[in-house]
Amino acid sequence: MASNNWLKMTIHDAAGMNRHNGRDERVNGNHENKFIDKSKSHLNLYIGCDNYSTTYEAMRERVKEVDALYPPKRKNKPAERIICCMIEIPCPQEIVDRGYEETEQFFQGVYGIYQDFFGVDNVHGGFVHFDEVHEYTDKDGTKRMSLPHMHCLVSAYSEWTEKNKKTGELTERRGINGKHFETRVRMKRLNELVENFCNQKFGVRFMTGETPQRKSVETLKAEEGVHQMTAQKKQIQAEIDALQCTHTSIQGSLEKLTEEKKGLVQAVGELKTEEFQIHNAISDLQTLQQEMKCEFDKKKAELSLLENSVLAKKEENEVLQKKIDELQQQVFSITIPEPPVHPQKPTIPRPQQSKEVYVKVMTEDIPYKNIFERKKEEKKFKAEYEEMLHGWSEYDRAVEQYNLDYAKWAENTKTLKALQEHLQTVFYYERRLEEGERIRYSAIEIEQGKQIKKLEKEKEELSQQSKKLQSDLETVMQQVQSLADAEYQRKRKRDAEIIEAYQVYCDIAPDEIEDIVTQERNRHHQDYDSD
Description:
CATH architecture of the largest domain: 2-Layer Sandwich
Number of strands: 9
Oligomer: single chain
Number of helices: 12
Largest sheet: 5 strands, antiparallel
Strand content: 5-15%
Number of domains: 2
Shape: flat
């Protein structure tokens, strides 16, 4: 049964309808209503307005205008106040079947009826939706198509007669009032006006007399989902029955593969024993190689030291001589720094008693009007005491730091003077020893020449031994790698056979097959990955 559906709204409810009725929001937004077909949104109509945002602002201005003339009685909860109504009306199926132009004429005529019934100033805009037409399942299981419909935003302006409970006097009232705006009489009268319009203009009935479903759009969508889920459930149950039939045959294949696996595990155990023996041999070879490498590195280091000893000593002597000359200039150019400056005493006096005694002495001779004034003065003198105590504490810390800095300065000054005197003596004897060192270096060069020839011979022998050990190690590692590759390929082949067995008996995704294989392994209580 077609009718005008009235939905009273607060200011927040009306603002939230912008997502459903706004021009840009309708096309670009993400909607929970899955039946909105954005490819048909260009067919939607905007009657009496350009966009929902302007309609919403016009409604707010109208409410302010009416409230200024006829203030509401209750103002404590403006957010919960009913200020407007969204009226939804579908187009009869007979008119829809006649085409788009006839449907548009119907909504244009209905909008004019709303303006006459509610007043032009109270009707702010209509939004016709052609993009929500979809198929749905009725309560009796019949497939039906939904109809194009219009949402119209109307201010809840009404005029009514109010009776005084005490005097019985009748008073004419008007203003924004949701209770008197939506009444049974007004709703019935509006339906009659639309019914007469349809009869005269199109020769069809608006109220067909059919029993309405009285279900919301969300309920209808949910029932449609239930029907779809029921069909899916039946299909899934059939697939489950088929899988259960093939499970027995697959189970037999798994048991056969398990028996084959036991033989493979035994073979793997033998390979592990051989691998362990090879690892022991490699470990012995690595130990020997490490010992030879350490000996070789040791001899190489000694040879390197002997080869570079003479040149290094000469260069070191030259560098040290330059450093000594620079150090001598730096030491004798160092001046004794100025002593640290003693900190300045605070100008405020040092407190001689505790904070409680100080506050008591300062406040005992002052007359007070009340206890609040006394508390205020005590607070002031406490702050003054804290300031004095903080100032002298900072001074005491500064004096303590000054004493430490002065002691350090005195010690550094004494050390610097002693160092300058000591360096003068060292520089004298250093020049005396320089000539003796030159003579000693000449003898060392002769001895080092003999040792270098001996070490070069030992180095050549160690190099040949190292190459032989490296060759033996590479041979063993190649044998181990070939065994590991063979074992890996065997495991891959066995997993492929299990997966192929499942794919032969039932159509299952690869990731689901992996889960089934894991469950079967756990059922047999065997560690599949340990081998």
